[in-house]
Amino acid sequence: MPERGFARALGWVHEGSALFHKRLDELGDAAAEGPSLLPGWSRAHVLTHLARNADALVNLLTWARTGVETPMYPNPESRLDDIEQGARRPASVVLMDFRDSDARLLAAIDALPSGAWESIVRSALGRTIPASEVPWMRTREIWVHLVDLGAGEDTDAFPADLVDALLAEVSATVGAKEDCPAVLLRPTDRDGAEYRLGPDGAEPEVVAAPTAGLCAWLLGRDTAGAHAARGSAQAVLPRWL
Question: Gene3D superfamilies attached here (predicted)?
Fold first, then answer.
């Protein structure tokens, strides 16, 4: 990750964590009760997932710091079961688990020696990465799941440069899928910016919407901005995303 991007990701992690905790404080125990915006998941599922993600990323930073291989998840097969079981705990326990695990991760990030950020570790998908990718990995989780919490947050409340970074990454990922139709994303609030998805030879369907809406749409989030983007993509297969 370029030095500038790494430094900004460090900032996004702390900004996202602070905003997430603020929303939890506003919601009280309700922050771990009721449905989230993710189909089939409650708010407790979202918080438990984020807690286990924090623990997994601490494992990677421990690996980077000590040189001792420490996988993200000791038992990857049980990840979903762990989330299901964890989501059934009392709301106060779920909230404390999230707060404690998030604090441990932020402390591990802040304490990692500068030279250790270039240490090579391995993601849960088996990809070898430098430890410097960890802040960005947490950035995606904490900000996107802030929307899923259903506390009124939308991608249009994200920092503008974070929206740009998310849209660039997700458009590249989605655009590389074999069944991705030819689409040209054209942010209406970014002069000259375009993102091409799908096969190069086909005439693309132009989808024009604010950057935050395009980002939410590609992320599959059910937000007002995503609805606007979807509405401008009438010729794109509606079930594709």
Answer: 3.30.1050.20, dinb family like domain (1.20.120.450)
Q: Which residue has the tokens 């370029």?
A: 2
Question: Which CATH number does the domain 6-153 belong to among 3.40.50.1820, 3.40.47.40, 1.20.120.450, 3.40.50.620?
Answer: 1.20.120.450
Ordered DSSP codes for 106-163: HHHHHHS-GGGGG-EEE-TTS-EEEGGGHHHHHHHHHHHHHHHTTSS--GGGS-HHHH
Specify the 3-state DSSP secondary structure of 75: coil
- Find, among 160, 221, 166, the residue nearest to 190 by Cα: 160
> pLDDT tens-digit profile of 15-25?
999 999 999 99
Residue 200 DSSP class: S
Tens digits of per-residue pLDDT, 152-204? Answer: 888 988 999 999 999 999 999 998 888 888 999 999 999 989 999 999 888 88
User: Going by C-beta distance under 8 Å and a sequence separation of 6 or more, which residues neighbour residue 237?
Assistant: 181
Dihedral angle of Cα 224, 23, 134, 70, to the nearest 10 degrees: -130
CA distances from residue 5 to 49, 59, 97, 139, 180 in whole angstroms, order as listed: 25, 22, 29, 12, 28
* Enclosing H/E stretch for 187: strand 183-187
Segment 89-106 mean pLDDT: 97
Pairing of β 205-209 and β 183-187: parallel
